[in-house]
Write a structure and sequence with these properties.
The chain has 139 residues and is an all-alpha fold. It has a domain at 45-137. It contains seven helices and two strands; from the N terminus they run ββααααααα. Strands 1-2 form a two-stranded antiparallel sheet. Helix 1 crosses helix 6 (101-115). The longest helix is centred in the N-terminal third of the chain and has 18 residues, at 24-41. The model has no long low-confidence stretch (mean pLDDT 90).
Length: 139
């Protein structure tokens, strides 16, 4: 709802128990859901190019668009491909190990915690923070 209302801040992400507990799993899962919501909220381009009415007219009701250059150039623009939500059919999901959304989320949390390196703060920011800390400690 936040994204559809045009808000650019979605807060309390990763909280469970009415905000009494923070969860890495819930944080990562919510990131995926927010990505989907942002994709829907951005809408889609409506123009002469995207409508392709001439192409629709030339192909007609019995044709298909898969072999058309216009399709090749444009169809990927509207996709949102999740990392955690599995869109596989049942047989493929079973063959890939029957992992749950929580299993996939926890794997991603582990990967992030094991490998993420935060970018260092700019020297000016570090200096300013040190000055603020020093100022606060002198009281």
């Amino acid at each position: 709802m936040h994204a559809l209302c045009g808000e650019n801040l979605i807060h309390d992400v990763g909280y469970i128990e009415s905000g009494l507990t923070a969860s890495w799993d819930m944080l990562v899962m919510c990131d995926e859901f927010i990505g989907a919501a942002k994709h829907v909220a951005k809408g889609f381009e409506l123009s002469e190019e995207t409508l392709a009415l001439d192409l629709i007219d030339s192909i007609g009701p019995q044709g298909h668009f898969m072999a058309e250059q216009h399709t090749a150039e444009n169809f990927r623009k509207e996709f949102w491909i999740p990392e955690l939500i599995d869109r596989s059919n049942f047989d493929k999901w079973q063959a890939q190990g029957e992992t749950s959304l929580l299993d996939r989320t926890r794997d991603k949390v582990r990967r992030i915690l094991e490998s993420h390196q935060a970018d260092p703060l700019d020297a000016d920011v570090q200096k300013h923070l040190a000055e603020l800390a020093q100022k606060d400690n002198s009281k």
